[in-house]
Amino acid sequence: MTNQKIKLPYPSTAYAAIMHFKAPVAAPSVSHFQDFHAGQTFFINVNPDASDALSPPAGGRIRVRVRHVKTPRTLSCPLVVDILDQGRGSTGTRRAFLKLYDRRFSESLRQEYCIDEWSEDNEQKYIAAVKSGRIQEFLRHYRSIKEEDWNDDMVDDWDEADAEAFLFHKTERLFRDETAAYAQLHDLQGIHCPRLLAKVSLNLDSALEVEEADERTQGSATKIDADLFKVKGVLLQYIDGFSLDDLVERAPRCMWQGLVDEAIRIIHGLGQRNVVNDDVRPENFLITTSAQYIDQQDEPIVLYDDAVRNLIKSAKWSRQHGGSKRFMRSSAPRCRKRKKAYQRPYYQVFMIDFGMAWIRPKDWSDVEWAMRKDFVDEAGCVGVVMKRRLRMTGFNLRYDRKANKPYADLAKLHPDYYMENTQGRAEKMTELGVCSTGARPSQRYGPHQ
Question: Which residues form the domain of 109?
Fold first, then answer.
């Protein structure tokens, strides 16, 4: 037999491309009984929204890898993730902050409402109740109860599955409130609050099974089941910094006053945009640092990153070892010449966590809105607390509480402002919808709280 050259049915270059092409590896779904851990990879669904910074890819989902699970987990489950390649043609990774409102790991909600820690046994009961339709009926009945007809004694009849459904309802509301706040603060995103990249959802394994069954049966009931097996969340800009709570250990003493003042200015910016946040704490402010050249007149010249800093080091090394002046001029950052210039940190303050933020209702009067803002006293939650903490180090923080309550005069026009009993005033504010966290004892578990 003579050796004959075999002709390929397609060009050799195309054959090589096909042979070396690797299809994206399907990331496993997250199990109902699985906690999040570093190195875990899974898909999240991206909800299409023109206002989001991240456009949904083909298929409407992206693959992420968990880099770090942040603790403690309060109202949500916070994860630092890497956004991996979204398929053929996409390369590289991008770090982001994934905030999932997962009822299973909302530790603060479970502690606040005296619900036991999540367990596999309770999760089995919840899955069985959803598939039987009992949870759907429970939520319809629960959400239909009027506020005046609710009493917390009704909670005594709940079982473990009902408690999980209640937590599902609470986390859904937190998700809606946070996304509404980010939409209201769209002009501050990336400047004073993280940029909202996308609204996302995570399918637990049972959701995939229900959706497949829904495609076969085209039934509406199974579609509701799939929603109850999904975890909603937000994908945010990752901010690498320290919290205002760590100001003493992480920032120089000369910057303390300015950083606290900047946090308070951000709080006043919320009021100008008709937003009130019931969860304002020093821990909910992040401070980032970068290097900046400052001249004698205290004017910024150039802001440089690690790459430029390495060039400066290389230029200095070249000069010390006989390098040419030409290399020095080409490597050093171009900036205006000054007789004296020095380097100092540049700080930027971000406010995070808007899960308990409220948007001003359209039917509220100016007096009602002022009453709410004055009662919550967001600026005082930072100014007063930081003044006490810094006083322990011998630092006198300049903070005037009266000057930072711009709604006080208007709030005094409200007929219930001068109630003598503080507890009675708090209950009255709750009745008016003024304070979502100060619920009356008989209304803590109600659907309207």
Answer: 41-237
Q: What is the DSSP string of 341-366?
A: EEEEEEEEEEE---TTEEEPPTT--H
Helix (H) / strand (E) element for 172: namely helix 160-184
In a domain, 328, yes or no: no
Residue 411 lies in a domain: no
Task: Give the model confidence (pLDDT) of 65-91 as tens digits.
Answer: 999 999 888 889 999 999 986 544 455
SS3 56: coil
Q: What is the DSSP string of 253-285?
A: GGGHHHHHHHHHHHHHHHHHTTEEES---GGGE
In a domain, 185, yes or no: yes
Between CA 384 and CA 59 the distance in angstroms is 49
Question: Rounded to whole angstroms, how far apart are CA atoms 337 and 8?
Answer: 65
Q: How far apart are CA 180 and CA 440, in angstroms?
A: 26
Residues contacting residue 210 through CB under 8 Å, at least 6 positions apart? 222, 223, 225, 226, 229
Domain tally, the chain: 1
Distance CA 38, CA 30 (A): 14
The whole-model pTM stands at 0.74
Cα Rg of the chain, angstroms:
28
